[in-house]
Amino acid sequence: MNMYKRKTVHILSHTHWDREWYLDSKYTNEWLVPFFDNLFAMLEREPSYKFILDGQMCMIDDWLDQLLRTNRSIFSAKRRIRKYVEQGRLAIGPYYVQPDWQLVSGEALVRNLIIGHKMAAELGGTMKIGWLLDNFGQISQAVQIHAQCGLRGLFVWRGVYMDPEKVKSEFIWKSPDGTALPCIYLINSYRNAMRLAENPELAKQRIDDEVAHMDHFNTTSHVLLMNSYDQEIEPDDILSVLRQLSNNQTDWQLVQSTPEEYLNAVLAEKPDLPTLEGALYVGRFISIFPGVMSARIYLKQQNDRSLHSLERVLEPLSALNYLFGGEYDAGFIESLWKLLLKNHPHDSICGVSVDPVYTDMENRHYLIQRLAEEHIERSLGEMCARIDTSAVTKHVALIAFNTSIARRSAVIRYKDRFISIDSIPGMGWKVIDPHATSNPGNVWTSLGNQDFVFKAGNGLVEIRLHPDGSFDLWHKATNATYCGLGVLEDSGDAGDLYNYSRPDRDLVIDTKGKTAKIKLIHTSDIAAEFRIETVLRVPEGLSDDGKGRSSRIIDLPVVTLLRLETGSPIVKINTRLRNTAKNHVLKVLFPSGLSVDHSHGGSPFDVTRRPLETGDFDESSLPPEVKAVIIGAREPKSNAFFLGQYFADVSDDQRGLSVLNRGLPEYQVRRDNATLVLTLFRSVSSIAGEINSRIGDAGPKMLTPDGQCLRDMNFEYAVFPHIGNVHAGAVALQADDFAHPVLVSETMSHSGSLPSSGGECEILEGSVIMSAFKRAERGTALILRVFNPSESATSVLLKFGRPLEAAWRCNLLEQRQERLAESQSQFLRFDLGAKAIQTLELQLAPRATALEAIPPVVPLDEDNYENFSAWNSVPEVSEAEMYSELARAALLSNRIDDIMYRRSALEARISAILTLSRYMQQDLRRLGLELNDARVKRRLHDYIATYKKS
């Protein structure tokens, strides 16, 4: 208990603005106009009033858009914002949006901060505090990212865990590289003093109670009260409360503060704070909602494709083209980033909003990818025109572009065959003659026996395919065999978009021991590819009581392509399916046979160690003072599902097994045989409900048919056996290579000013991963950002394709910190600590090269389409579901004037409207097809009838 007698209670007035959640942004953005009108009125009426704008600049962007729609001046609006910011009364920034920090890339988190800082600077200045109020768990590198943007501390809620007997309201948080920042822990939420002025007669008692609650956890004489809630349109008149209570003789004094003022006040007393390290991802005190990683998986995949297009193709290819005299359209690229970032708010990317939100998000992704591809093709055309392909004697040449700094080899599919490409320079290109004989490979295949159907190998690994479609994998370097890989497992899910929940009466179905249709569809010394067809017989949904799986069984078709390539120990897998059922989860199993107590998964700028599942928490061990303040939803069991951004790994010091992925972020490791489990998708019916895997209210109970993922889906992943642990096996580098393949373009044979092979930035020494190669935000230099995922420091040596005029170490905002090079050398060496992120500014003078007529250019891409038209899904919205929602809304409408039921009644009414709309859209789609068919047949009848009459 805090021993200070006189306390200072700091009120922080704010709003937490969910851009999209129970309504899509076209509605919530309309609320911004009255919100800002009310805020400005308060700031004018109360000259000392202070307010925090939720840490995100997108609110201002959306508000300005709304002003334009109503013919109001955005210039005077910006002046008002700047006025209050410069007075220190309105805190804006540091982000562009409030993202989920797990489900986006590290580079996206950096751009969110860069754009947020840039916009805030234009409007008077940036709040230099991190504002992590409601994202669903904290990544290990959050502290390093914030510190490298000059932020002095963090306000944090979800994911934090301490010994329940030793919980403190402040702590020191360290990233894996050693960077540390002080943090304010919002253990009793960001709303514990909401609307104090609405009932002024209760204000003192409410404050007394909160002060008493927090007295168990405070480390200083300062107490924090958060004065707002989600989408608060009217700022609370808190200064009237301050005046009312100013003459009261109490144990505390009341002030309105900013986050920076509160942090300064706490640190001024030099408290002894506990230290937490790495990822904060425990839901015992407040939910982290681990189910969001696999909810609406199609969104995670689309986001992965958009991030890849911007980070690893558009920007580096534009930078490469810029070095040879091409245009770098920074404004256009930033506009794509802002569009993409609007898909990253936590309620959006996590998938826990109403369906119309995801129609908007998918449309944004489609627009981003189409616009990015147009720009990519333009840069490709200019680069291809410069590169000499005349050595290719026939008309058509291929050029492989490597937009990574590591020299790479690749196997590509060209028409009906595979081609091996060796040694493509870092950030460079290589011309390939598609008609020439490829370098000989070492892939072989053979028929099996009674135990397996096919066998294939390449000198590094061997695979044996079993009749059920699973396979054994032998790894030569470790002489280890991994058996029964690739079994599909389908189980029920009675949860919601926030959390998986196992039905009380589950039925687990898998492909083990079943007969699959297996065919060798390609064999050469370069690659072997197998096609595995299976049909899962699964329940069509949940039972009528929602506690078991339905007795009605339907077919779910699955096609898997399994590929082994020359020179690679990786087995690539592409699984295609049509989801025909509801309320279930489909996973792929990879037993490792290892004895381990942990796993590793990729995360933004890191490789994060995760414990295996440890069981239920003991609720009885929670002290009453902790129970009194943990008011939100929470998870009563330790988490078993973790983030595997690009990969998940189980390993000991001798060997390991990794599963690499593109846009499939959820994994778990089961103790039985240390089985690594990759989740393909979860299929559920509502945003939130009453489920057995969560305590408390998570969000609105609203039906979300699209959450069932009743669509065709395509999943790309791979198996990688390796020597040693996750770091010795360079798993993060292999995963990066798999996630970001080389780009190959078809062009004509022609002369050019650039050689047939060349590179502009290549790593010769050091184990680092590139996250950005782009033009600087200011000036004409280039930016290279890398990070060291390992637990050891590394010395990095870079080689450039031209003399390096100068180089600087920078922070993440690209502000110079240290000059590294002044000579005209083509080499640069620098040291990078364990788990460190490094941004380099490189002065590489552009060199204009002759650009003749741009030849036709066709980027190559594999077609992953599978025709599943023979299988029908259950209806997105059944007639029974539609009537059930209408009945629920009607029932609750009778209690809509009861404050205890009004929220539920309104949620039910919105859910009913959206469900009815979706049911009618489904009907409209069917009727439209029938009408089109009827029109065609009627016109044909008119012609045929004429002949029959005659």
Architecture overview:
The chain is α+β, with helices and mostly antiparallel strands and 950 residues long. The chain has 17 helices and 45 strands. The strands form 10 sheets. The chain has a 9-stranded antiparallel beta sheet with strand order 22-23-24-25-34-31-30-27-28, with helices on one face. Strands 21-20-26-33-32-29 form a 6-stranded antiparallel beta sheet, with no helix packed on it. Helix 11 (330-341) packs antiparallel against helix 13 (355-386). The longest helix has 51 residues, at 899-949.
Number of helices: 17
Structural class: alpha+beta
Give the CATH architecture of the domain at 9-281: Alpha-Beta Barrel
* Biggest sheet features: 9 strands, antiparallel
Mean pLDDT, to the nearest integer, reads: 95
**CATH class group of the domain at 9-281:** Alpha Beta
- Outline, from the CA principal axes? globular
Total beta-strand segments? 45
Under CATH, the topology of the domain at 9-281 can be stated as: 7-stranded beta/alpha barrel
Q: Which residue ranges are poorly predicted, with pLDDT under 50 across at least 5 consecutive positions?
A: none
